[in-house]
Amino acid sequence: MPIPSYADAVRYVRRQPRINTSALADGLGIRWSLALDYLQRMEQAGVVGTIDDHGWWPVSRPQGPPAVRKATAAQAATPQESPTPKSERPQEALTAGAPLGQSSDEEQQELLEKLRDAARVLMAERENMQKLRDACRLLIAEREAWKRRALAAEARMLTEEADEMDRHRFDALRRVLARELHPDYAPANCADLPLREALFKSIWPKVEQIERKGRGG
């Protein structure tokens, strides 16, 4: 959408009794800083007066064309010219009224253009809002996915910690069985040495089998 020019701003301001930065920005659909720049330029050009204490610029009204005033003075100075026939006065009235109608059409056209621009801005804002909603939904989905991954990682960590504790317990039990049953750890002159050897040969293969299963998962 094209940004309204300084000339567009001047035309808009001339239709107002007074103007401030917010009113110009809202009326043209431009940024506040650009509206302030336009009004400062208009103050230098004499389009508006000096800003008052409340932030309003009075709008200067353009005077009539100098050529018209000179022509009027010339007509007053030359009484010998014949007055305009009455039959031609309606035609002059129509001619004089033509610029008014043309100006009204131009204002209506400008108003239509502004309405179209406002509609385009509204559609663009709606598209932006839809994009923001889609982005929010995507962020929510990503957050839920990260939450699930974090919970799974926490569960794996707890499982690994529990497995590690089980391995430590199993190793401790294994060492106890080895000290109590292995013939090499038997005291001297042990009367039940054959019984210890028999128990060790019977139990230790089962201990090793349990250990292999634990390592294999």
Sequence-ordered SSE layout with sheet pairings:
Elements: H1 6-14, E1 18-19, H2 21-28, H3 32-45, E2 57-58, H4 66-77, H5 89-181, H6 193-216
Antiparallel strand pairs: 1-2
Helix pairs in contact: 2-3, 5-6
Provide an overview of this structure:
The structure is a single chain. By secondary structure, the protein is mainly α. Among the domains are: 1-64, Arc Repressor Mutant, subunit A (Orthogonal Bundle); 155-216. The chain has six helices and two strands. It has helices at 6-14, 21-28, 32-45, 66-77, 89-181, 193-216, and strands spanning 18-19, 57-58. A two-stranded antiparallel ribbon has the order 1-2. α2 crosses α3 (32-45). The two termini are 66 Å apart.
Quick take:
By secondary structure, the protein is an all-alpha fold.
State the main characteristics.
217 residues; 6 helices; mainly alpha; rod-shaped; Arc Repressor Mutant, subunit A
Order of helices and strands: HEHHEHHH
Number of strands: 2
Based on secondary structure, the structural category is: mainly alpha
In round numbers, the mean pLDDT is: 77
Note the beta-strand portion. Answer: under 5%
CATH class of the domain at 1-64: Mainly Alpha
- Separation, N- and C-terminal Cα atoms: 66 Å
CATH superfamily of the domain at 1-64: Winged helix-like DNA-binding domain superfamily/Winged helix DNA-binding domain
CATH architecture of the domain at 1-64: Orthogonal Bundle
Calculate Rg over CA atoms: 49 Å
Shape: rod-shaped
